[in-house]
């Protein structure tokens, strides 16, 4: 069967077919974009995943034939994997509800999360909202009606770049792992399917400081950008769509970690920067406000002292030389290296921000051993 | 009287529930509850007009392109009214129409097959139509494959789908070359071939009625017609009657004349009224008496403040507001567009649905199917009119002061974005979505919304299995999949109905106490 699909996703899922594995997919303050993204997964497709690999989705509001109360009853109360899409409102809990409490009132998502997460073997936040709060947690800039964020929206274990989210900083699921965050608005379908497959196999994804699986979230968008040559030469576009690097019209590529430039979207069709759209940084915690206004040069909050874009280009180039090699090596090894128990200390030994091109001036911190194993 | 609570009614953007009162075998009252609030309008205020398109584009991961374009149009309108902008290039407007058309095909395919189709499948409703069975039927799986092709076509222009980033105020950021346009066309043609030739509709209809299947006539067409035939047999022409009042912002401009394929206006009292943009904008108000917002959050969307939440408000039951046109509810979506435009291909609504402008559950499905056929040809025309050598992006001003309205017409119905900008910063923002028009709450006069009215009168032979009510809900494409939780007002008994699943011969009913 694997030969039918012959990808790392299929290989990983194939190993998980020894028994039914139960998954619960909840939606908080979501737009369903992560679900729609997952529907675009190929080799295997989601329907193949469900049909051939016996992943049992006991609850998914968009996909399951069972519905409503019956769906809630079919929901596993101790799932192998709990997935949340969308943020969790904490100051206005009624801003996202599902079903009813015993007294007939609407049951807030925060209750569902508090009940199910401790019972789950793995908890995955798909998308920026579930991981970090996402756009429902964006700043209420004019302080309309008082609140800093309108509904007190949070991610599962993070609020923007800080812990804690709804579950608190010390939360670990049954596996001993914290919430696995798949940032992105939305995340790539491979990120979702491959991460689910990995944990279902009992493997432990190596996580970065925001609990994102490193294989997806370590490369910088900037490193493999189609326009990178323009950046290095200091040739900048005046508006989106113009020829040149989009850094000065708001591109967050130098600050954004994901491998989409290589992986591409929609079965290898394209990626944001390839169509002249500046990266908005959707894979990063703190997206929205960290990079806004999105159409203006990103404040170089991570740079130490004044650095010109040309300097940054040079610095990033140094980092890229190491980074690309590491990435290529990792692609070959796939996920097989993440054997349970051998992940050891997944931190890179520093809590520093590793999100700016100048990190490359200290290759040791940006491209430590964990990148090249 | 039995009170029926449906929660969750999923498969719309957000969370939704429905409360029904059933008396003597029919629904006597319905209340539609939108159960999610995020505050898009509040978050948008204080930001750049350009950022609004990026932010509100992510209001919905299903209707992503529509909000992005609607917001861009509002920003462009505001800048134009300020005398700071001449409008996006014509070529960009053609491309926006084209991607919206591709999006129509995508959304209709997903809705008809993945969301509505199972209702009329063998597995769920024992109709004999096995190709529609969820996740197993060949038709269902084929639709999922084809939706990926359409999303790939959208990604060619937008970089990715969902949530493409290229559509922003000023035009479209991308510069597709001729080869890319050809790639998109070939994707659309592939899906078009799966759908089948338009002229085959009568023959396919005959085949479906006779239990025959000829893949040469189009697999998609066969399955879509199967849904319509099954729905007709199940009596859905007599369900979900609306007031036969429709509203559309119009879409798909002909580049030469500016005339739209789908007309702009309203239909009421049996006739069409063509309306200008100003007449539409002036006619709309929003009500918040039954919404979890302060009473003064309603009014004209060109004047009202962003909605102020009041979650404990007495008598409120929805996070949705109640939009009205000149005080009246208006149904929006494919049926509205076709009724206003006067299209009824093959007289399907006249023959099957009791009349081309009759609002009922079956006609909403028929119109969606008819529209898919109309739009797939229109997309290829638009792509043919698109010139890769013409500009796609105009300089959009950084700083201006002005008010703008972006009217747009996504697949689910009319959409409008309202934006006030002062010194380059958004001071006020309002969005009215198609779902609000169709499934919002009551207005200040106590008048039910379209869906609340449509469900009243639906026969419920068995209060433990109001399948037809659910079919009506789904026909609006809020994409609801509902289970039913039934209890009496004084909780003397409680019954849970488990809807049919694939493989079940009938509903499984669990009764507790």
Topology:
The complex is a heterodimer of chains A (373) and B (513).
Chain A: H1 2-5, H2 8-14, E1 21-27, H3 33-38, H4 46-52, E2 55-59, H5 68-74, E3 81-85, E4 88-89, E5 97-100, E6 106-108, H6 109-116, E7 122-126, H7 127-132, E8 153-154, E9 180-182, H8 189-200, H9 214-217, H10 228-233, H11 260-263, H12 309-333, H13 363-366, H14 369-372
Parallel strand pairs in A: 1-2, 1-3, 3-7, 7-9
Antiparallel strand pairs in A: 4-8, 5-6
Chain B: E1 2-6, E2 16-23, E3 26-34, H1 40-44, H2 49-56, H3 64-81, H4 90-116, H5 122-125, H6 138-158, E4 167-168, E5 171-172, H7 178-195, H8 201-210, H9 219-233, E6 246-248, E7 251-253, E8 260-262, E9 265-268, E10 271-274, H10 277-283, E11 284-287, E12 322-325, H11 334-341, H12 348-352, H13 361-385, E13 402-408, E14 415-422, E15 425-432, H14 434-439, H15 450-455, H16 467-475, E16 484-487, E17 494-498, E18 508-512
């Amino acid at each position: 069967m694997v030969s039918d699909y012959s990808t790392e996703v299929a290989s990983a899922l194939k190993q998980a077919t020894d028994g039914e594995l139960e998954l619960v997919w909840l939606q908080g303050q979501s737009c369903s974009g992560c679900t729609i993204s997952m529907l675009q997964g190929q080799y295997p497709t989601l329907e193949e995943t469900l049909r051939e690999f016996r992943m049992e989705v006991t609850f998914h509001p968009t996909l399951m034939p069972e519905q409503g109360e019956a769906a809630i009853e079919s929901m596993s109360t101790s799932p192998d994997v709990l997935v949340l899409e969308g943020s969790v409102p904490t100051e206005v809990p009624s801003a996202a509800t599902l079903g009813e409490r015993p007294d007939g009132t609407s049951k807030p998502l925060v209750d569902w999360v508090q009940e199910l997460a401790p019972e789950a073997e793995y908890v995955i936040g798909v998308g920026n909202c579930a991981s970090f709060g996402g756009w429902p947690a964006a700043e209420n800039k004019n302080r309309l009606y008082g609140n800093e964020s309108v509904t007190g929206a949070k991610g599962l274990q993070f609020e923007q770049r800080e812990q804690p989210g709804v579950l608190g900083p010390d939360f670990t699921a049954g596996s001993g792992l914290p919430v696995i965050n798949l940032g992105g608005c939305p995340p790539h379908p491979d990120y979702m399917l491959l991460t689910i497959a990995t944990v279902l196999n009992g493997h432990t994804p190596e996580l970065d400081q925001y609990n994102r699986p490193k294989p997806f979230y370590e490369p910088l968008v900037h490193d493999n950008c189609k326009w990178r040559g323009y950046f290095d030469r200091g040739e900048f576009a005046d508006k989106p769509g113009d020829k040149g690097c989009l850094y000065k019209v708001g591109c967050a590529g130098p600050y954004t970690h994901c491998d989409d430039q290589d992986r591409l979207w929609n079965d290898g069709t394209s990626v944001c920067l390839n169509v002249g759209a500046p990266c908005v940084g959707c894979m990063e915690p703190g997206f929205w406000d960290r990079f806004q206004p999105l159409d203006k040069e990103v404040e170089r909050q991570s740079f130490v002292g004044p650095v010109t874009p040309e300097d940054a280009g040079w610095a990033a180039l140094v980092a890229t030389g190491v980074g690309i090699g590491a990435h290529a090596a990792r692609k070959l090894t796939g996920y097989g290296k993440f054997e349970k128990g051998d992940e050891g200390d997944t931190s890179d030994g520093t809590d520093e921000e590793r999100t700016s091109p100048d990190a490359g001036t200290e290759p040791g911190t940006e491209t430590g051993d964990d990148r090249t194993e | 009287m039995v009170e029926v609570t449906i929660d969750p009614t999923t498969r719309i953007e957000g969370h939704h529930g429905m409360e029904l009162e059933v008396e003597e075998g029919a629904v006597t009252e319905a209340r539609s509850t939108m159960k999610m609030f995020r505050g898009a309008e509040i978050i948008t205020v204080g930001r750049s007009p350009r950022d609004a398109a990026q932010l509100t584009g992510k209001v919905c991961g299903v209707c992503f392109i529509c909000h992005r374009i609607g917001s861009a149009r509002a920003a462009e309108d505001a800048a134009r009214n300020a005398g700071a902008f001449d409008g996006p290039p014509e070529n960009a407007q053609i491309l926006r129409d084209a991607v919206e058309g591709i999006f129509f095909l995508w959304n209709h395919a997903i809705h008809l097959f993945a969301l509505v189709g199972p209702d009329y499948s063998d597995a769920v409703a024992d109709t004999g139509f096995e190709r529609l069975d969820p996740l197993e039927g060949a038709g269902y799986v084929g639709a999922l494959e084809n939706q990926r092709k359409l999303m790939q076509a959208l990604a060619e222009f937008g970089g990715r789908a969902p949530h493409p980033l290229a559509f922003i105020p000023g035009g479209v950021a991308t510069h597709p070359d001729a080869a890319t346009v050809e790639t998109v066309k070939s994707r659309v043609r592939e899906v078009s071939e799966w759908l089948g030739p338009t002229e085959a509709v009568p023959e396919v209809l005959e085949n479906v009625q006779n239990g025959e299947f000829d893949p040469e006539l189009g697999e998609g067409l066969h399955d879509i017609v199967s849904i319509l035939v099954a729905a007709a047999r199940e009596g859905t022409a007599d369900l979900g009657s609306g007031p036969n009042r429709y509203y559309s912002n119009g879409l798909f401009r002909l580049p030469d004349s500016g005339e739209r394929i789908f007309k702009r206006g309203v239909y009421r009292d049996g006739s069409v009224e063509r309306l200008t943009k100003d007449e539409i904008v002036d006619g709309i108000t929003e009500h918040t008496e039954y919404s979890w917002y302060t009473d003064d959050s309603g009014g004209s969307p060109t004047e009202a403040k962003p909605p102020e939440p009041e979650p404990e408000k007495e008598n409120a039951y929805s996070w949705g507001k109640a939009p009205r046109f000149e005080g009246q509810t208006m149904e929006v979506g494919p049926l509205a567009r076709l009724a206003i435009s006067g299209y009824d291909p093959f007289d399907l609504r006249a023959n099957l649905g009791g009349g081309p402008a009759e609002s009922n559950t079956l006609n909403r499905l028929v119109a969606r199917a008819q529209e898919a056929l109309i739009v797939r040809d229109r997309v290829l025309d638009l792509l043919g009119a698109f010139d890769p050598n013409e500009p796609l992006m105009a300089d959009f001003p950084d700083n201006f002061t002005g008010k703008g309205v972006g009217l747009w017409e996504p697949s689910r119905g009319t959409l409008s974005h309202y934006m006030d900008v002062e010194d380059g910063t958004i001071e006020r923002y309002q969005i009215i979505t198609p779902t609000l028009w169709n499934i919002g709450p009551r207005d200040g006069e106590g008048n039910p919304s379209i869906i609340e009215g449509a469900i009243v009168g639906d026969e419920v032979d068995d209060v433990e299995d109001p399948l037809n009510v659910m079919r009506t809900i789904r026909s609006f494409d809020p994409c609801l999949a509902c289970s039913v939780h039934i209890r009496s007002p004084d909780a003397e008994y409680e019954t849970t109905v488990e809807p049919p699943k694939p493989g079940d011969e009938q509903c499984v009913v669990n009764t507790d106490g």
